Amino acid sequence: MSTARRTSLIILAAVIILFLVSWFAKFSAVQNTGAPFGISVRDGFYITLAAFCSLAIFSFLYKDNPYYKFAEHLFVGISAAYWMCVGFWSTFVGNFIPKVSRTLSDFFEVPFKSFDIFYFIPLILGILLLLRLSNKYGWLSRWSLAFIVGTTAGLNLIRYLRSDFISQVSNTFVPLVVDWKGIDAFFSDFSLAANGQFIMILGNWVVFIGVFCGLVYFFFSKEHKGFFGTASRVGVWVLMITFGASFGYTVMGRVSLLVGRLTFLFGDWLGLID
Amino acid sequence: MKEILMVFLALLLAGGISSAGAQESAPPPDTGTLVVTPAPAPPAPVTNLNAKDKPNDHGAGVVVTWPPSADDVVGSTKVFGYAILRAATPEGPFLERGRVPIGEGVFEDQGSLDEVSPDYMADHVDYYYKVRVISPDTTVYADSEIIGPVQSSGQWFNTNKVPVLIFVLCFTTLAIFFINHARRGANLFIRPLAGIEAVDEAIGRATEMGRPILYVLGLGTASEIATIASFTILGRVSKKVAEYQTGLIVPCYDPIVMTVAQETVKASYLDAGRPDAYNDDMVYFVTQSQFAYVAAVNGTMLRELPATNIYMGKFFAESLILAETGALAGSIQIAGTDEVAQIPFFVVACDYTLIGEELYAASAYLGREPVLLGSLKAQDYAKAAIMILAVVGFLAANFGWVDFVNLFNVPSN
Amino acid sequence: MKRQIPLALVFFFGVLMIIQYFVPHEASEWTFEFLMDWIYIIGIFALALGIWSLVKVSWDKIRLRRENWQYAIVTLLGLVAMICFGFDYFRNVFNAAGLQNFMFRHFFDYIMIPIQSTMFSLLAFFIASASYRAFRARSLLASLLLLAALIVMIRFNPYFGPLTAYLEQTASWLLNVPNLAAKRAIVIGVGLGMVATALKVILGIERAYLGKD
User: Fold this and answer.
1) pLDDT for B191-211, tens place per residue?
2) Which CATH number is associated with domain B50-150?
3) In this structure, is the dihedral angle defined by the CA atoms of residues B398, B400, B401 and B402, taken in order, positive or negative?
4) Do C145 and A248 count as a contact with CB atoms less than 8 A apart?
């Protein structure tokens, strides 16, 4: 037996022993709270399983290993089936069956609403989609695809025109001078606070120039030379500041996710945190 | 009879005066005498009431307007508010539909079109309205004249959305003009996009190293615009991959995306003259769970060790996980997304990033087809129009051209 | 026929959805709700296609003994077990109570959720490694990125004494002003790109999603 294989077997044995030790320890801890024997065994097993799944994923940070592969493949299989079950019960049985068949509604124990012949159209389109698996009739699946793509293209065209285009353009109409109180007041008020006159005027100018130069950067039909090039460069600077600020803003949020997981491991599993 | 009445009134008056005097010292004894205080005067009723069908709605809506009551003045104690009442006939019964405070002179009576709803309000049915001026004493009020019949109905065009219609028509005209212009052979310039120029180089690198290319279409559905743009790029990439005989791995998050991606890649292999090299397993479904998908793609990156990772489409929190794992695997990474929140992570972690609109321009840039170039030109002209509009709007905001600014205030639904 | 009908369908439903936005009438709302319902229902059939693909790939891996074929068994076992619990197979009851099945909920709570949360928490490590790799002042642009990120990251740090208030205000200004400007420019560009692409799809110019005959 090679060294690598021997090492893997030793690690596997250690993992199994640790799992059993943890299970027993959690089972005892749960039983000490007064829970019945069966419940204690079950809960002890599940908490240990959850902790080992978490550690298996964390092991990815070291390198790809059999424990990560196991957790990954298990997660893929379980999650695919989970969404299939949820989709079947909530959409197909909850939304479709009550509108097409009283018999099936009774079978699945959902209240029958009313017969609506139009709901046979998505049924037909769905079946056409499944014909994708056939070499001879696979082209029929394009009809279902065309319906979905066409409907959402029309919806998105209007939605994004209104929200990403018209609304954004109108929000760029900002006043050049905010709450002008006179030159003396302006020079006496350099406060960085949000309502400082200087900062509000500066802010409006930066927003306007930033949007203008950003749009110049995204101009594809012209070489970025001369005035255009200068404006484009200013646009890139503003973009870089934005990306840096957004990155910095998310850091603490991401670290808090880790804190949550560590709380589970050290608290619920190991019992080191109250 | 008259004398008895006079004596009664005299007694009443005497009783009133003596009780007024007695109040200052002690409460009056209960002598059984009836004391009638004059009722407070009701507030002035509303006049010139107006009711009409609510415009630009789906029906079951009537707008009632009225000028304020004569007693609705600052500091008035006679008016508490207004109640709006509705009935199916002028004789009633009138039911209250809502109340508004003093100072307001408009009420939208919005019902439901659902027949089983308790708030059901049928269209094309006569309704009659009146407005009641309420005083602080709820028993004292004044009703307006009854107005009606007025009928609610749904409209077939929302006039508030005319600006959106104008933009749609203008943009469509611009796009069609430039597409036709391009079709007639006009030479349309596009500035170089570093991320897209790197794709060819990246595919060549993968071929030299004998390692596959990983193409991730993102977590969007087949109907997302970013995913549709990604299909076009996938088509170009897979054609090159077929020509160079490099491996291609396309793990999919959405089953419909998988279907379309399979069609796209198969067509590209056919175009490249290598239909035999195509295998349906190149493009496969993983799962519709975000992090399960990421776990699987991470595993693929570390096991298959692709030379190039291309991320094009809609990404969310998993963008950094994918990009960092790809960097760990030593792959060249090219990313493109329209999700503004994820662009910083791709910029930091990937070698090349297509920012926002560049993703949509990429398909035109790669294929150089006149139609696609024409539509990109239309986008640029629309951007130029926006810049001009922004300058005009900027001036409008400063010089108080309210009408121009209000043109862009479009309802959300 | 194979391409004309799908293109006609795309055009018809695309234009219908555009018209629907401008028509406030009840019939328009009814049309919108119907079409959205239809998309969700067709999505379930698409999911069946996806599951088929996953099963096929896993089975081929096992059958042909490809690398890591043993883990494909784990995928299939997990899939089958979860489907049995979700459809309450073992109790022979075919109703939505399958979603409340004891084992279904436990698999969700003690396998899916921990793994999902742990994957999410990996971001903490990856953001640190990305920062380490990227935050080098190699050029003006990289320096701007670094400076902006640093100011925003340390804005709540109390160890800078009197500078803390200024850092906080500067970070707040960075997040509310240049950040807003650049994002607006990106969003306007994205909006235009989306509108143009949607228009190309509806007019049949963009047809990569249909494949080839």
Assistant:
1) 888 888 888 889 999 999 999
2) 2.60.40.10
3) positive
4) no
